[in-house]
Amino acid sequence: MDAFDHVSMTDMDEADVTRGSGVALWKQIAGRLEWQIGSGLYQPGSRLPVEADLSAKFGVNRHTVRRALAVLAEKGLIEATAGRGTFVKEAPLRYPIGARTRFSEIVSAGGREPSGRCLGSQVEEAQGEVARELMVADGTPVLRIDTIHEADGVPISFGRSYFPEARCRDLDLVYSATGSLTRALATLGIQDFRRRETRVTGRVANEREQEMLSLAPGRSVLVVERVDVEVNGTPLQWGRSSFAADRVQLVIRP
Q1: How many CB atoms within 10 Å of residue 6?
Q2: What's the pLDDT at 217?
Q3: Contact 152, 142 (CB under 8 A)
Q4: CA–CA dist 242, 221 (Å, integer)
Q5: C or N terminus of the chain, fewer CB within 10 Å?
């Protein structure tokens, strides 16, 4: 029997719970919070009170609150992000992939604040897959950049990209300063580039992806491989990124 059967809608915004009703306290709390989310009291993207405050509000221990929040998370209504708190989930970000794919523009168009961050970089010798995708000889210096991208502070994707080092020298430094790959490339004189190919696969997130994207075990990612080229067709970037699957809706455009 659901907690809603014992609590009227007009009482859903009250803090107390009914003991001895035959309905577990955690279930009552989950029902109240679910109603508050559905009624708009907590808007998509808004942060819920911390566990300690919810425990005080409902007069229960944290374990009870934690179980109620776990139920809402399983329903896809809320999401906990490490270091930020628990938020009402927003609709997946519509992410068009076409000839011109720019993270900052896509996120801004969705009404959210984009940000990018360089996690590390290194000049390496191209081998195997990297050399093949960038169409360079084995041993050619390439610049590897590891990045994470967020929307309103929520991690959307993280991954690794490779660029011909001779063409993109110091790109990592400029990217770290600007937080935008498009602006960083423009600073180096590369005003435009195009997506030549995108490959998408899905799987369960590994431990590293769970950590970087603040995902619970068992959650899924979309692994996106991409090849970007300059206007003359010369490969500019090959990379592989992991997207939190339930935070984006990939829209493939010709």
Answers
A1: 16
A2: 84
A3: no
A4: 6
A5: C
Residue type present at position 211: E
Tokens 């660029």 -> residue: 163
* Conformational region of residue 120, where left means phi above 0, alpha means psi within -120 to 50, and beta covers everything else: left
Domains and CATH numbers, the chain: 3-88 (1.10.10.10), 93-252 (3.40.1410.10)
Instruction: Say how far apart CA 1 and CA 232 lie, in whole Å.
Output: 65
What does the DSSP assignment read for 28-94? HHHHHHHHHHHTTSS-TTPBPPPHHHHHHHHT--HHHHHHHHHHHHHTTSEEEETTTEEEEPPPPEE
pTM of the predicted model as reported, rounded to 2 decimal places: 0.76
Q: How far apart are CA 230 and CA 5, in angstroms?
A: 61
Compute how many other C-beta atoms are within 10 angstroms of the C-beta atom of residue 8: 8
- Read off the amino acid at residue 18: T
Tens digit of pLDDT for each residue in 64-99? 999 999 899 888 788 887 677 888 888 889 999 999
